[in-house]
Structures are given as structure tokens and as C-alpha cells.
Amino acid sequence: MNDFSANDGKRRPRINDTHVNLSHGSGGKAMRDLIADVFVGAFDNPSLSALEDQAVFDLKQLGTHGERLAFTTDTYVVDPLFFPGGDIGHLAVNGTVNDLAMSGARPLYLSCGVVLEEGLPIETLRRVVESMRQAALAAGVQIVTGDTKVVERGSADKLFINTAGIGVVPAGINISASRAQPGDAVIINGTLGDHGAAILIARGQLALQAEVPSDCQPLHELVAAMLRACPDIHCLRDATRGGLATVLNEFAQSSQVGIRLQEQTLPLREDVKGACEILGLDPLYLANEGKLVAVVPGEAVEAVLAAMRALPAGRDAACVGRVVAAPRGAVILETGFGGERVVDMLVGEQLPRIC
Amino acid sequence: MNDFSANDGKRRPRINDTHVNLSHGSGGKAMRDLIADVFVGAFDNPSLSALEDQAVFDLKQLGTHGERLAFTTDTYVVDPLFFPGGDIGHLAVNGTVNDLAMSGARPLYLSCGVVLEEGLPIETLRRVVESMRQAALAAGVQIVTGDTKVVERGSADKLFINTAGIGVVPAGINISASRAQPGDAVIINGTLGDHGAAILIARGQLALQAEVPSDCQPLHELVAAMLRACPDIHCLRDATRGGLATVLNEFAQSSQVGIRLQEQTLPLREDVKGACEILGLDPLYLANEGKLVAVVPGEAVEAVLAAMRALPAGRDAACVGRVVAAPRGAVILETGFGGERVVDMLVGEQLPRIC
């Protein structure tokens, strides 16, 4: 397959087309010019300019002392492409960076596969690629290999992006959804549901004066700081589609433990809370794009929270619950009024194309 | 993000839905049931059942003696999904296996990111996933991590698949599009254009009695045999979109050499030749999905051809051209009648959504 690196990486033609057409996916000259102009210039790095259909790295550089390799993938179909606080390009880089980070890995290399709809303005593509470039730079990762497909008008909605990623997990880190145990504490790094609310408002489905920015951000430096404070973090996952409730149900089921949440400890923006009340949405299920959920040994809570709060991405970090022996596999919310209710997996769809 | 491994991997609910709906992309219960039923059962392996959002491997197992890691990605949007000789599932596995193989790598692990259109029959998805399972088994790779997105009816055409892949390049292999030099020979492993013709006929765009099967197949074992015969293979690339002409132009430009092809040596199926004549298509530009182009030192030609012909994927291997000093960056076809013409990069689109 012809990929981003399948061009000479030296001549950078500036294409004159204003919109994507089918020849941009042909494998021929138009595709190579699009890639050379739009992608290679933005993502410039030695692997991408090496002219091959795959990026190749020295294994020894990755680690020789018990490190492990992490590998993940995500496709992004968010609608609209641009929203307060980010766009599909930021999302595509940060989402995959975060999936790597949740294993404790240092994210290193990303791939980028795009599906373009015929007729997409080239300027839109340039904006998205520029966001990817900035996000990759900010996260310290390189986009080293890619692929471009074009489909006829009406066969895709504007632009979809897949990013796969690889990273290196330091020796001695053992994070898994199955390691939660009674006595552990549940920690999150900030307010819930910002991304979901941002998309909802950006779609015009909610007539709100306020503009809620997405929380889209990379979390690997926060994770590294948390691991320095407590190398024995038990579980870690980013609360994207399905929100906090979904992640906690995954932890409870995989670890066969109960999890009790304290409602009054959950950080929520006032405008997100308002939007949820108006629309009957539960912020526990709203998507986030810069929030993680950690399960840590009870005695490590203060050290982990202190480490988190020292970084912008962890400024609003809070301990929101605890792991208990029973009921196994269930998540219970303790409400402000002394009551409690089961927080189940999301059934049905709350908000399609959120990421 | 919730991925294929984000489920308990033990209970395998059989979903009752007959068609994909938006809740299958929600991050909630419907998505997890779809993944557990359709994907995890088919792709079953320890990494996928490890319940995490990323697959993690011991770096030491990958190599400690100068091996390198290869990383690639491709999105598949072929239309129709099913065609003689294969389907989008075979393509998604073999295409990425081949991109890894072209660096000399042993393909190891694949990711799988799908975009599903609301309303897609679940049975169609099952058939495609079964093809991916079979192709992965045949190629000796594991599909270790994944992602599922669902978009509204009309926002995508049925099903798109992205696969990224990683593999290990043995020490001492140094394949690159920039290594062709005068005196080298150009070798291909069989008939040209079969995949392009198969898709064309499957679309009903050509009323032919004959059914041409796609050549979709994995090529890594063929490459391994070629490297045993000649560890110093200079260039290697699979001739997919854009066909043989595109790959040779890439080699000629990257290496700053000329390439001369002998028309009468090019292997062509009679029915593909006929289809091209009727439609005015040039088989040099038609897509292949199981054909590679190698540039090898002149003295190694016979050894490489012998090694190739010993395997089914190389049965029709042939030396089709030679590398010359000039004209730099150009590909020249010597016709059967003593004439010659320049074979340029493809301009415009010959056949959209071929892969």
C-alpha cells in the first residue's frame, strides 16, 4: 500500500486542488502530491521521510531491561470535526496517546490512516493535520507511517481518522483492570463529562449560552508522575465513551470486587451539570477525552493525589470512591442524601459519534 | 477508548440483533456484547483476552540481537465487500501483513479498527470477521487490539477496516526503495492486475463470462525464502494501488536510476489482458493484492527466482526488467515490436475503492 512515506520527502509540491477528489486516493501522482504537501510536511520526521511503506525502529533503542511494548488502535468519527477545546485531529492523537499511557507506557510512535470523502475542502484537511502536528509535538510522539483513502461523495461523512500507537512500558509496572482489591481507592483527575457536553453543545442540540470546552488532552505525563508516587497503581483507564460508569463497571467485573462512589466528591463543572439536568443525561456516562480513573492502594492515596495536583492535567484530582469486597462486579453510588443506587453499564446509546 | 479487549473475555454473549445499530458504538453494554460475540471469539488470543485497552508484549521476546521493529497501517474501503478470491477481511489482514513483509519483517501483531454503518447486517460483519480470523491464522499473525465505531446510516458505506501491524526485521536486512543500482534486476512473483480486474468484474462494470479471482494472499513467507536466497535484496514493495508502474517509478525516483521493463516478459492472465483491452486499462497500473516487486543484484537473479518458484506464491515469478544508470528517475517499457515508451506515474484515478 502507498503510505505517507511513499514519496521522496524532498520535493513538497503545493497542490492547487481546493477539494478532495477520487484521484487523491488513486495511488498515483495526485495522491502522492496530496500526501507530500499536506501530511509529510506537517509530520516531518526521519521515519516518515525514509520513503518506505512501513516505519522501522531499532529494538535495542526501545529497551533492553525488561521493558514491554504497548500497542493500541482507535478510529475517530467525531461529529462535528471542530468543537470548543479541540477537533478530530487533537482527538486522534491524544486518544491514542492516552490508551498507551493507561498501560503505564511512554507513547512513542503513531500511525495515521485517513478516510476522506470526495469533496472535502483541502483547507479542512490542512486544519486537522495541523492540529495533529501540534498535538503530536505537545505529547512528544512522532507520526511515522500513514495511509490515505478517498471514497465517493456520500460514502463517508467528511473525514475519519484511525491512529494506532506503540509505546514502551517501563519494567516493574503492572497495571490491569483485574487488579482492584478491597481497601483500594478510586481517583480521577478532574471534572466529568466535559467532552460529551462540548460535543452536544457544538452540535446545537442544546441552546446554551455557555461554551463548554472539551477536556481533550494527553495524560501520559500525569500517569508518569502518578507512577513515580506509587509504582504499584493497580488499575488505570481513560474514561472516554461510556464515561466513568463504564470504566468502573469494567474494573468491578474484571477484578470481581464492588466499587462504592461518593456522589458529593465527583468533580463537575456547573455548566455541564446544568446541561445534564436539562437534557436528562447522567454525567457518569458522559464521555471524557482527558480524564483517567485510577485504582490505587488505600495507603497511597495522598501521595498520588499530591503528585497529580502538581500538574495542570491533575489540578482537580479527587478521591471519589473505594473498592469493597461485595457486591462483586457492581458499582454503587452513595448519594448526597444518604441513599444509594446501582450504577450499571450504559444500555443503548447516549450520544453517537462522540469521538 | 473501549477496545476489543475491554471485556471480560470469558462470557461470550450471543447477540440477538440482526443489524448494527448506534448502541453498538456506545461504549456501553451493546458494544461490549457485539465485541465479545463477534470479535473476541474469532480472534481469540492471550493479548486480546487480557481485558485491557492496549496489547502489551515483552520486548526481549521480540529480539535482542540487532532486530528492528516494523510498524505500518492501512485502511480498507473496498467496494464491493466480497469479491472472487477474497473479501475486505482477507484484504485487511493480508494487505498489512504484506506491508510489514516488504521491509523483510516477520509480521507478528495486528490491530483492527472498524467503522460500521448503522443497518449493516450482523451476518455480513460475522463473515468478514471470519475471513480475518482465517487470514490471520494462515499468515501466523495475531489480532491483539481493536476498536469499534458505529456511524449513522448514510455516513459511511457499510464497513471500513483499518489494520495497523507490527513485525520484527531480522538483523542484517536492509531493504529500501533508494537502494536500486545499475546492474540490478527487477523481479515479480506472478501475473499482474488480477485484483483490479476481479473488483472491476465483481462490480458488474464489465460483462465478462470469466470470473477473475483476486490474487489476495500473504507474501511474508515468499519474502523470507527470497532473503534466504539473497540477504542483500535491494528494494521490495507490494504492487497494490497504482500497480507495478507506480512501484517502479517510486524505486526509480528514490534511487535516482532508470528502470527498463521488457513487455513480453510481463506475466498476464489472458482474461485480465482481455478485460484491459476492452476497457482501455493498462495492466501496469492495475492493483494487485498478492504481488511484490523486488530489485536484486544481477548475479542473484537465478537464485532468487528458484527460491520463489518453489513456493505457490512465487510459482510464476519472472525477471521483467533491469536497472540502468539513465534516464534517472524514469521507467521505460520496451515493447514487443522493438519500440519503447515512458511508463509514468498514474495521473487521475483508474479505479476508486479498489482496496
TrEMBL record, chains A, B:
GO biological process terms on file: protein maturation
Domain PurM-like C-terminal: 181-333
Bias (Basic and acidic residues): 8-17
Disordered as annotated region, ranges: 1-22
InterPro entries noted in UniProt: HypE, PurM-like_C_dom, PurM-like_C_sf, PurM-like_N, PurM-like_N_sf
Family: Belongs to the HypE family.
Protein name per Swiss-Prot or TrEMBL: Hydrogenase expression/formation protein HypE
Organism listed in the record: Solimonas aquatica
